[in-house]
């Protein structure tokens, strides 16, 4: 997955938070049985080297576990958390398998509402009051 709209759509799906990451899963409902995955790691986690290392680890885990435990016709998104890079790789593998099991066992409920988008998150602007001497 590369489009931002796909990541935002996955955010309305089911989620399974784990200590090293958060897994989001959303069935697309388009009839295509392909499993897609996306990975995102924010700058809060660390610099570029740390983020790229974490993404490489997630990529290997996704390629290994999604064909076996993933949901056909769904988008899977891994969001890296701060403690994820220090976790042992086998521990991350076990957590991803557990998260996929949790997501598979839940009934798909109604989709969560998307938050309204107001540009850069500032919301509508208040009317400006003039500053300076009054006429």
UniProtKB/TrEMBL annotation:
Top-level taxon of origin: Bacteria
Function: RNaseP catalyzes the removal of the 5'-leader sequence from pre-tRNA to produce the mature 5'-terminus. It can also cleave other RNA substrates such as 4.5S RNA. The protein component plays an auxiliary but essential role in vivo by binding to the 5'-leader sequence and broadening the substrate specificity of the ribozyme.
GO-annotated molecular function: ribonuclease P activity
Subunit structure, interactors included: Consists of a catalytic RNA component (M1 or rnpB) and a protein subunit.
Family that this chain belongs to: Belongs to the RnpA family.
Gene3D superfamilies xref list: 3.30.230.10
Enzyme class: hydrolase
Origin species: Sphingobium olei
Keywords from the UniProt entry: Endonuclease, Hydrolase, Nuclease, RNA-binding, tRNA processing
InterPro entries registered for this protein in UniProt: Ribosomal_Su5_D2-typ_SF, Ribsml_uS5_D2-typ_fold_subgr, RNase_P
Protein's recorded name: Ribonuclease P protein component
Annotated EC: 3.1.26.5
Disordered: annotated segments: 100-135
Catalytic reaction equation(s): Endonucleolytic cleavage of RNA, removing 5'-extranucleotides from tRNA precursor
């Amino acid at each position: 997955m590369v489009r931002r709209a796909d990541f935002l759509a996955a955010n309305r799906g089911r989620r399974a938070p784990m200590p090293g990451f958060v897994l989001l899963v959303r069935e697309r409902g388009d009839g295509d049985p392909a499993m897609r995955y996306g990975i995102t790691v924010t700058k809060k986690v660390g610099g570029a080297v740390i983020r790229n290392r974490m993404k490489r680890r997630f990529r290997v885990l996704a390629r290994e576990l999604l064909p076996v435990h993933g949901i056909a016709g769904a988008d899977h998104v891994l969001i890296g958390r701060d403690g994820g890079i220090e976790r042992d790789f086998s521990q991350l593998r076990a957590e991803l398998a557990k998260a996929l099991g949790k997501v598979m066992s839940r009934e798909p409920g109604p989709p969560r509402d998307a938050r309204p988008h107001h540009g850069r998150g500032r919301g509508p602007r208040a009317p400006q009051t003039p500053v300076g001497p009054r006429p």
